[in-house]
Amino acid sequence: MNERNHVTDDLAEYAVGALRGGAKARVEGHLRDCADCRKELAALERTGELLSSVTLEGAPAGTWQAVRGRIASRAPAPARPRLAWALAAGAAALLVIVIGLTFVLGPVGDVEPYVIVEPDDEMLVTIEGRLPATWAAPLADEAAIGLRFAYLEEDG
Fold first, then answer.
1. Residue pair 48/16 in contact by the 8 Å Cβ criterion
2. Of 12, 42, 47, 137, which has the highest C-beta tally within 10 A?
């Protein structure tokens, strides 16, 4: 008999007498034809007999009070993290709103777009002449470019 047709899931309930009606009849019919399930049922019944022969001992006096005291001493922390999460979520929402409005409304005020200029030969010579100063003063290169742009604007 293949594995799908076995009644192993119902055997524990059958062993303790918990099955009724059609479920009980189905298991009994299967047990008549299946030696594997009869062996499994016999093992479950032996286990039940062994467990019923064990006597339960009561816990020493005061055990449950000690357990309750330990649980109570580990009371959960106050709900402050919820406030922190709420504030963080509010800040994130505000940031999303500001960024969204910036994209929708566009820049505020008169903003000139950046103009990207390819350097000509004269500008490259000026920049290259300033390279030693650039190592000594990192902003010297930007200053040289700024002077060159000012010179070009004057020439118009």
1. yes
2. 12
Q: How far is the C-alpha of 34 from the C-alpha of 28, rounded, in Å?
A: 10
Q: Collapsing DSSP states into helix, strand and coil, what is residue 134?
A: helix
Q: Angle 2-49-27 (CA atoms, 0-180°, nearest 5)?
A: 30
Q: What's the rounded mean pLDDT across residues 100-127?
A: 72
Average pLDDT, the chain: 78
Angle at 82 between CA 77 and CA 85, to 5 degrees: 135
Q: Check whether 73 has a pLDDT greater than 50.
A: yes
How is 88-131 classified by DSSP, letter by letter?
A: HHHHHHHHHHHHHHHHHH--SS--PPP------HHHHHHHHHHH
Domain boundaries, the chain: 7-52, 121-155
Orientation angle between helical segments 35-53 and 21-33, nearest 10 degrees = 120
pLDDT digits (tens, 9 = 90+) for 27-45: 999 999 999 999 999 998 9
For residue 92, give the amino acid letter: A
Which one, of 53, 62, 1, lies nearest residue 32 by Cα?
1
Over residues 62-71, the pLDDT tens digits come to 888 888 888 8
